[in-house]
């Protein structure tokens, strides 16, 4: 059987299981044809970088979406600036005290572990759409591991890191996808961070031999080097390429689901560690001139590469798909940086989060040129409305009504909110070493330190 046949058969089994109740019973009044929606999450995307690039014509795909749709600053949460917290709020429409993902990691019974899907206390969009009889496809979204049963497919946030785990000889397939068998069909799409094409990376900037050796560096035990911006660039590129290529592949070999969610993270990794070269005037003290000359375009070019992926993915979507581009927060200068050209071990730490993310919406449901004030909690209720589905009683956000075309709302009038629930989930079984290595990886790329843990 060809690869397409294997994947279609896999999806068929998945849909059959969902219909039998493993993913929850579908609501009959929602079953049938419905508008399709795609969410493309871009970690840390900010209009502070986007707008100058739009003026320069460097983001043609984002520009086209804005031209035929709408844009708004997406206000982030005052509860936390941690990405797992904020992306979970986007997916659930509630704040962190209700959804239960309160940091990157937690300490339970004296052991530090990464927050997982089993720690989330409320349903997410993929659960809600499944409960309403719709199909979903999720690729690379924060805190989706271990994979939940959905009506469609789910490739968790651990998938881009499976190559990294192979250095440690740990079980990397446990819960990585739903259905479980899907991981074997897409394993070849996971880019090895140690085999990254230098020419591809140097579309963003030029790197000396010493810098390139640092970028590829692993510790003596095979572990990632901690807190180095060059290493973070490598893993950010690897993860984004892996998720984007996997999303593209699944759109090619499977029918487009009613709700597609994918996640592009390179602007966040780059923003944290190369902001000083991008915006040296924001730094207290001089930035090495050679870094400004060679690395000054790393941040803008990360947006250019992301825009190219947005264009490829949008081109594969059905023309009647409503598209949302969202970020969890923005980025700004820390006013400092680490490292020097002759001391590359701690390069980076020059960008930090702001509470100003982005929202771009385009498609048949969206009124071109409409304006709206929005925050993270408004995304989930707005997405369900764009799909013609009933909202959830759990939502703390609101539907962004001004975004919608009047004729769309006439064809798909608002429905009464529904109760949502999580399907029963078994105890989390964690193969030895997986969380420890994943935490080490998060420290290496600068996402966490020992303070980014609840309960310890």
Question: Could you explain the architecture of this structure?
Answer:
With 456 residues, the protein is α/β, with parallel strands linked by helices. It has a domain of 318 residues: Alkaline Phosphatase, subunit A. It is 36% helix and 16% strand. The strands form 4 sheets. It has a 9-stranded mixed beta sheet with strand order 7-6-5-8-1-9-14-2-15, with helices on both faces. Helix 10 crosses helix 11, helix 11 runs antiparallel to helix 12 and helix 12 packs across helix 13. The longest helix has 25 residues. About 5% of the residues have low confidence.
Summary keywords:
alpha/beta, 456 residues, 16 strands, single chain, 17 helices, globular, three-stranded mixed β-sheet, nine-stranded mixed β-sheet, Alkaline Phosphatase, subunit A
**Main sheet attributes: strand count, strand direction, barrel closure:** 9 strands, mixed
- Helix count from the secondary structure assignment: 17
Based on CA atoms alone, the radius of gyration comes out at: 21 Å
Strand order of the largest sheet: 7-6-5-8-1-9-14-2-15
- Identify the CATH homologous superfamily of the domain at 3-98 and 116-158 and 247-425: Alkaline Phosphatase, subunit A
User: What's the mean pLDDT score?
Assistant: 88
* Stretches with pLDDT under 50, minimum 5 residues: 13-26, 164-170
Oligomeric composition of the shown chains:
single chain
Helix content: 25-40%
| Secondary-structure-derived class | alpha/beta
